[in-house]
Amino acid sequence: MNIEKKSPILSDDHKEMVDSSFNMGYKLDIDILNLWPTIISPKPLEHYEEYLRRNEKGFPGMYDYIMLKSDPKAIVEFNNLVDKYNADLERIKKEADLEAISSYFERARKIIKGESA
Hints:
Helices cover 57% and strands 0% of the residues. It is mostly helical. The longest helix has 24 residues, at 72-95. It is elongated.
């Protein structure tokens, strides 16, 4: 017996939800900003794909659909920024460098919106 494994299909409502930010010209899913820590509790960050996979639960097909819509260059740029932030995290914590957290967040926002970071 050959059972074909089919990937789940994302509902039209969920597609519309994803499309809304990409239709505004965003290069990445705007929800990724939820990844960034608060100034009060800096923590290590995940790469774009890791965050999307972790948050796909309950929405089968969401990861694939968002990745299809996402700009590959923006993904690389975002992940590089995450790596820089994570490498700088101990210093940020030690110095309580709130300005650095804000700066990283602003650069992430610009990458997501397709602005010059």
